[in-house]
TrEMBL record:
<feature type="domain" description="Quercetin 2,3-dioxygenase C-terminal cupin">
    <location>
        <begin position="148"/>
        <end position="233"/>
    </location>
</feature>
<dbReference type="Pfam" id="PF02678">
    <property type="entry name" value="Pirin"/>
</dbReference>
<dbReference type="InterPro" id="IPR014710">
    <property type="entry name" value="RmlC-like_jellyroll"/>
</dbReference>
<comment type="similarity">
    <text>Belongs to the pirin family.</text>
</comment>
<feature type="domain" description="Pirin N-terminal">
    <location>
        <begin position="8"/>
        <end position="120"/>
    </location>
</feature>
<dbReference type="InterPro" id="IPR012093">
    <property type="entry name" value="Pirin"/>
</dbReference>
<protein>
    <recommendedName>
        <fullName>Pirin family protein</fullName>
    </recommendedName>
</protein>
<dbReference type="InterPro" id="IPR003829">
    <property type="entry name" value="Pirin_N_dom"/>
</dbReference>
<dbReference type="InterPro" id="IPR041602">
    <property type="entry name" value="Quercetinase_C"/>
</dbReference>
<dbReference type="Pfam" id="PF17954">
    <property type="entry name" value="Pirin_C_2"/>
</dbReference>
<dbReference type="InterPro" id="IPR011051">
    <property type="entry name" value="RmlC_Cupin_sf"/>
</dbReference>
Length: 237
């Protein structure tokens, strides 16, 4: 078993006024050659966008891009003809593939939007770009880890071109959970959205992260009033 601990206060940070962002991995002006990615997980940005502001139209290709709003409303528009509002409690995925142009902005004039911008390297290049958006069933993530992303279009949640699974859990009870990896060649990147948890004697607080790999399973002690995102991704790809 191998592990790595990424405390919240060691993340890259930039405040552009309209955008206050924290980077779990090297991104934009934050560069650490020892912290480029966790396996196929390339980007985990914790973005807060000011009212009526956002990212103008820009390109992506050969990347799986996932957006998870934590609060507020995110407006998406792309050159595939999609225009939608992504709200807290939903998940959006876009396959860049051969190339796509999109924009994201805060829909509201009076409240910021906080969302996770996640990039995963795909296992297939130059695929047809695609878009999907789904609501997360609150019952499936209540005091348990509910699957919100997988490699399979017929599974729970959205899907991407990678051997990856994401899980979300919202806990109002203190629990001990055993987590079994879908693929033992994968690793799991645990991100504490709210509350507190402990893995392998490492205490994790809000926005702390913990990576674990070369194991089939691990245990987690979860405190009440916690919300946790688990990202299982290939370590070699």
């Amino acid at each position: 078993m191998k592990t790595t601990f990424h405390p919240a206060n060691k993340r890259g940070h930039a405040n552009h006024g309209w955008l206050n962002t924290h980077h779990s991995f090297s991104f934009a002006s934050y560069f650490d050659p020892n912290n480029m990615n966790f396996g196929a997980l390339r980007v985990l940005n914790d973005d807060v966008v000011a009212p009526n502001m956002g990212f103008g139209t820009h390109p992506h290709e050969n990347m799986e891009i996932i957006s998870i709003p934590l609060s507020g409303d995110l407006e998406h528009q792309d050159n595939m003809g999609n225009k939608s509002i992504i709200k807290s409690g939903e998940i959006q995925v876009m396959s860049g593939g051969t190339g796509v142009q999109h924009s994201e902005k805060n829909k509201n004039a009076d409240l910021p939007v906080n969302f996770l911008q996640i990039w995963v390297f795909p296992n297939k290049k130059n695929v047809q770009p695609r878009y999907d958006q789904q609501k997360i069933d609150p019952e499936k993530v209540h005091n348990q880890f509910g699957q919100i992303l997988s490699p399979n279009p017929d599974d729970d949640g959205v899907w991407i071109h990678q051997n990856a699974w994401f899980y979300l859990g919202r806990f109002d009870e203190t629990l001990q959970k055993n987590f079994n990896l879908k693929d033992t060649k994968n690793g799991v990147y645990v991100f504490i959205l709210k509350g507190k948890a402990q893995i392998e004697n490492q205490v994790l607080n809000q926005k702390d992260a913990f990576g674990i790999w070369e194991t089939e399973e691990f245990q987690m002690h979860i405190e009440a009033k916690s919300e946790i995102l688990m990202m299982e991704v290939p370590m070699d790809f």
